[in-house]
């Protein structure tokens, strides 16, 4: 059955337009439709799926799901919705954080915070294998063979460029170490902003509690005003604690983990490139770089 491209589909998809005889055939299920992806598109799609941190998404969705289930089973879920409390906690928290930080830090924090959900951790064993492979190439063809060599990340690519250009080891270490420290600083700013939100949200919830109590005590003569005042008093604290301890504090810890993982990987690359520049044998490099691996994985490191 011949297929032709269907211009109505989006770029990246290939949809088969079948001959008229296929009209008399039963429709195929959704997973068996004649949709094909090129090899590059499949690799990109798999890479994007592998980059999604399922633990963060599952944990956040599970925590919120348990909360919503408890609220739903306990009675009317509408009792936990109060617009003034939401405005006070969310809006107040946002403006308080804006007072503390500037626009560059806030925009950078969004990019850093995204790594809690979308992140592709590199395998240290594969990075070590690549460094050992590059060390073998330089022993036969010199450091010039490192030009245009593929690298698993931008950090290693910059280091390979410096090594291939023949810069001094001190300059190589100083440049890459500065890059590593600046990366840690960017992660630290992201963590600070997330933690600032976690600190401000309960405080704004407490402010909402005081506002609700003042409204309630100021209208004791009107029984109808007691309910809205009590709702603001309780729900604002509920929203603040929820935002801080169920979202912000866990995300800050995940970002701290991301920073530690990236810093460790960059330290591994720095040591490996310095060893290559010094002309160390792959065997000696392997013994040194394996220390970056957990004890149980060192025996399976590539030779």
Description of the structure:
The protein has helices at residues 39-51, 54-74, 83-100, 103-114, 124-141, 154-164, 169-218, 226-278, 282-289; strands at residues 14-15, 35-36. Strands 1-2 form a two-stranded antiparallel sheet. The protein has 303 residues and is mainly alpha-helical. It is built from 9 helices and 2 strands; from the N terminus they run ββααααααααα. The two termini are 50 Å apart.
Strand order of the largest sheet: 1-2
**Largest sheet: number of strands, sense, barrel closure:** 2 strands, antiparallel
Helix content: 55-70%
- The proportion of strand residues reads under 5%
Broad structural category: mainly alpha
Shape: elongated
The span between the termini is 50 Å
User: How many domains in all?
Assistant: 2
